[in-house]
Sequence to fold (315 residues):
Amino acid sequence: METPIYLWLILGAVLASAIAVDVGVVHRHAQRITVKRAALETAAWIALALAFNLWIYFMRGSRAGIEFLTGYVVEKSLSVDNIFVFLLIFQTLKIPDRFQHRVLYYGVVGALVMRAGFVVAGVALLRMFHPVLYLLGVLLVLTGVRMLLPGKKMMERELKWPLRFAKRILPITEEFHGEKFWVRSVRGWNATPLMIALVVVELLDIVFAVDSVPAVLAVTRDTFIAYSSNMFAVLGLRAMYFALAATLPRFRFLHTGLAAILLFVGAKMLVEDRVTIPTAISLGIIVAILVAMVGASLVWPRSKSVEDESQIDRT
Fold:
């Protein structure tokens, strides 16, 4: 189904307004974001996404509404794993708490553009060359298997190459200069650690998109639904980072649950030509996996010594 241009204009207006309020009003001044405030902001972003989901339901029908919700839940779930990577970036570069939101804001703006390219290219490839479906399915299954590997060492490997690349191509200074990304010296313009962090975030978002965009395309081939659900999940990622960064290590089965979601959507793509799984059932399975992951983590929590060791490893 082709999306009327006015729906794209409405989506753009909603996204632009939300970002303007977030930056110009809520986070006008650099400051440390408390867990309570981040939780309230996360709830606000989720409420906005659900309101947009309801609007899609009435404008495009029940199928589009369910596809948006399923895509949003998938992307939101996979975004949780990104929080660990952001935490490692900020700790490695020693980014002060009050400046972290600024880095993530510009990272999200970049994601708005890059994800659009990934979604459009993915939908176009699937329409023109059907075997791409199986390639994306295999990619998701392999990513799910990879996610079952020890998390911290894998994250450190993922962080090394963009960090090395950023430091190689940019003239840098080790000193912070407030919120500035660039500072001028006698030798010219130098990138501050904030700029290095931003470049690393943007480069890793490309890696994240390779996982998350195919997962959403396993749910819907509607470009509007795929992109909008992706964007609403990404927009709330900054607030979710500050709300969950300190508590996520307590979820013992987090990576197992996320891996299960990727394995499911990957398998769904691989069998799509022979077995049709309704989107509503897919949504139910994904939600059931998330509930099981949280429940298992609460029933069988990490031992105190393991949790303390995990916290030490991340500092």
User: Anything to note?
Assistant: Residues 33-313 form one domain. The beta strands are 182-185, 188-191. The two ends are 49 Å apart (CA to CA). The first helix runs from residue 5 to 26.
